[in-house]
Write a structure and sequence with these properties.
alpha/beta; 3 helices; about 150 residues; two-stranded antiparallel sheet; 60s Ribosomal Protein L30, Chain: A; five-stranded mixed beta sheet; 7 strands
């Protein structure tokens, strides 16, 4: 490492350089999340507190997220090198119960769930959703997720 590069890295000015030497997971991770995927933003509720309006997630998303968090906790227990710390591609096959919802809504819901479940440090790490698809399987709704580090 050149001296200039080392100085910039130590000051945190070069992205992707971990000061502790801890790069997190580098191999791909695949998880099957059982249950009909839900979007977080659509069909949300608005509540009033103290004269101010707040948006809260729909009951359907909250139920899906609770189930997903249990499944992600089991995945974390099996994997010692989580969370991912660098930029990642998330490929997700959303097998929905019906042909409803938009891709962006499903991406947002899954990204927030992966961050909450500590699979990712921050959902801003997701640089692409390359290979993701919206599919339909009424008999077996699920989300098949593969996360891979981008170099």
């Amino acid at each position: 490492m050149t001296r200039v590069f080392q100085i910039l890295a130590n000051r945190g000015r070069i992205r992707g350089v971990a000061e502790r030497g801890d790069q997190g997971r580098t191999s791909p991770l695949s998880i099957v999340l059982i249950g009909a995927p839900r979007t977080k933003k659509n069909h949300g509720k608005v509540i009033k507190r103290g004269g101010r309006k707040f948006h809260v997630s729909s009951d359907a998303y909250e139920a899906w997220n609770a189930s997903v968090q249990m499944q992600l906790a089991m995945a974390r227990a099996k994997e010692s090198d989580l969370p991912f710390r660098g930029h990642v591609n998330v490929r997700a096959f959303f097998y929905r119960h019906a042909d409803v919802g938009d891709a962006v809504g499903f991406y947002q819901g899954l990204a927030d769930a992966l961050q909450e479940g500590r699979i990712l440090e921050n959902d801003r790490q997701i640089r692409s959703w390359n290979g993701s698809l919206l599919l339909t399987d009424a008999a077996n709704p699920r989300t098949v997720v593969t996360i891979e580090v981008l170099s």
